[in-house]
Amino acid sequence: MTDEVRQSLLKSISSDRRIIVQAPCQHIYRLSDSIIFPGGEMPEPAKNYVGARKEEISGLNEELSDLKKKLTTGFETKSIDVTIGKVMEKVVPALASFPYQPRDCRPLFEPIDYIAFIGLSGGAVNGIDFFEIKTGEARLSGVQKQIKAAVEDGDVRIERCGDG
Q: Among 29, 115, 117, 164, which residue has the fewest nearby CB atoms (within 10 Å)?
């Protein structure tokens, strides 16, 4: 087939609006909306289109990379915060600024960090406090909020189990 015949055939196919094609990506379109050319050097409009798509993909890849970094940094920061919080909840009773007598406190750690039997170390318990140690931006969990609500509503009992 000569170049002249090939060019004529491509021109005829590319101008016929009745020809519908489906791309490998399943996109369906009119062949006449495409830039059709024989193998070899791409025409300038096709080069421009491909270049624009490559730039678009490069930009999307950069956005994805930035998002991955942000997510990774966020998870690392959160992990460090949680670890610091776990350590702090164990050492806080030893700090001078701690509002309870350390010997009045008993660790629970889950779901609430401590229960303080106020006055226990002096021989007379005159109150009981549940308390949770939080660092940074930490908030009460859903279960901790439920426990707080139960205490505030007076829905707290003492039960005795066993013989005697």
A: 164
Whether residue 109 is found in the same domain as residue 139? yes
Residue 6 falls inside a structural domain? no
Write out the residue range of the structural domain in which residue 130 sits. 90-152
- Is the pTM value of this prediction over 0.85? no
User: If residue 89 lies in a helix (H) or strand (E), which one and from where to where?
Assistant: helix 44-91
Cα separation, 10 vs 1, whole angstroms: 12
Query: Is 2 contained in some domain?
Result: no
128-136 long-range Cβ contacts below 8 angstroms, 24+ apart: 129/100, 131/100, 133/85, 133/88, 133/89, 133/92, 134/85, 135/81, 135/84, 135/85, 135/88, 136/81, 136/84, 136/85
- Per the prediction, the chain carries an average pLDDT of 84
Domain membership flag for residue 111: yes
Sequence-separated (6 or more) residues with CB below 8 Å from residue 141: 111
Same structural domain for residues 98 and 145?
yes
Amino acid at 145: K
Q: Is residue 84 in a domain?
A: no
Please tell me the predicted confidence (pLDDT) of residue 12.
83
